[in-house]
Write a structure and sequence with these properties.
Layout lengths: L5 E7 L6 H9 L6 E7 L6 H11 L3 E5 L8 H11 L4 E4 L5 E2 L3 H12 L3 E10 L16 E3 L4 H5 L10 E4 H4 L12 H10 L5 E13 L4 H6 L3 H20 L5 H14 L2 H9 L6 H34 L2
Parallel strand pairs: 1-2, 1-4, 2-3, 6-9
Antiparallel strand pairs: 4-8, 5-9, 6-8, 7-9
């Protein structure tokens, strides 16, 4: 029986100083029947030279540049890499992170044992060089089934789905692709779309991926209130709401989550799109959602401001 081929797809941009560690972690996987597709997003540093040395030494590595007719960004590179790939299974990786050496072996074995569409696993965060984290021997304590009943847990991030922490059976991806207009919240939108198609997978708590945090990461930019990242998260919310509505999955519990998301992002667009898509809910439920939003958006800030003024007056009178 032929061993299935796993495709690892990695977008990269100006990672000449970090990508070697990421590549080494993949080519040294204990599961070695793989093709490794790296797609460059127009790097201006020596990324291309670094990757070329690897392609000359290992024929499993294939290097491409993002076509000029596709928009700049990691998602266009991920989609392009998927279209070029030939593997039976797909996993995406980032060019500044480290994959556990047994990641592919463990995930493939469990997918095969449980006849699953995907295997989701955990990640750990590290800072700086790879000397600042410790790769431990993974222990699979429990294999938890995941299906469309877990969709809320995925959307609310109770069960996180990150770009690089899921091995997918290629067949279940079908024609679905990353949105190429979203620069943050992209995997959340894409993977919620996949799970809402009725897939059946598994989740394990084993740490099989190590995410490098640094000032140039997209997460860091989002929490620094980068306008592009924040607007992308808003757009991702809008797309998830519309997908849920189209599939008759936008229930009251989901709607409450998006009210909270709109308040967190401080953007009325999410609330407006939600209201447009909940006409199927009952009158009482819609009223509760409107009250929840307007109370938190309008009244609570006024209440907090009033308390702050009272405190300030009290301090001045001491």
């Amino acid at each position: 029986m032929k061993t299935p081929l796993i495709s690892i797809i990695m977008p990269t941009y100006d990672r000449g100083d970090l990508i070697s560690e990421s590549i080494d972690a993949i080519i040294n996987q204990s599961y070695n029947n793989l093709e490794f597709i790296i797609v460059d997003d127009g790097s201006k540093d020596d990324t291309i030279n670094v990757v070329t040395e690897y392609t000359q030494a290992d024929k499993r590595i294939k290097f491409f540049e993002r076509p000029k007719n596709r928009p700049k960004g990691a998602n266009a590179c991920r989609n392009y890499g998927l279209e070029l790939s030939t593997g039976d299974f797909i996993i995406w990786a980032d060019s500044d992170d480290i994959m556990h050496p047994k990641c592919l072996e463990i995930c493939f074995r469990l997918i095969n044992e449980h006849s699953s569409d995907f295997c989701r696993f955990s990640k750990a965060v590290f800072f700086g060089s790879n000397h600042n984290y410790l790769i431990s021997e993974p222990v699979v304590n429990a294999v938890i089934p995941l299906d469309i009943d877990n969709l809320y847990d995925m959307i609310s991030n109770t069960i996180p789905f990150n770009t690089c922490t899921v091995l997918w059976n290629r067949e279940v991806i079908g024609k679905e692709r990353f949105s190429e207009v979203i620069l943050y919240g992209d995997e959340w939108e894409f993977f919620s779309r996949l799970l809402s198609n009725g897939l059946e997978g598994i989740s394990i708590d084993s740490v099989l991926y190590y995410v490098r945090k640094h000032e140039n990461s997209t997460t860091g930019e989002f929490w620094s209130n980068d306008k592009i990242r924040r607007n992308s998260k808003v757009k991702a919310n809008e797309l998830v709401i519309e997908n849920l509505k189209d599939k008759d999955l936008l229930n009251y519990k989901m709607a409450r989550y998006f009210i909270g998301s709109s308040l967190f992002l401080k953007d009325k667009k999410v609330y407006s799109v939600l209201i447009e898509n909940i006409e199927h809910l009952g009158f009482i439920q819609k009223m509760k959602l409107n009250i929840r939003y307007h109370f938190n958006f309008l009244i609570r800030p006024l209440y907090k401001a009033k308390r702050a003024v009272i405190k300030k007056i009290g301090r001045n009178n001491e």
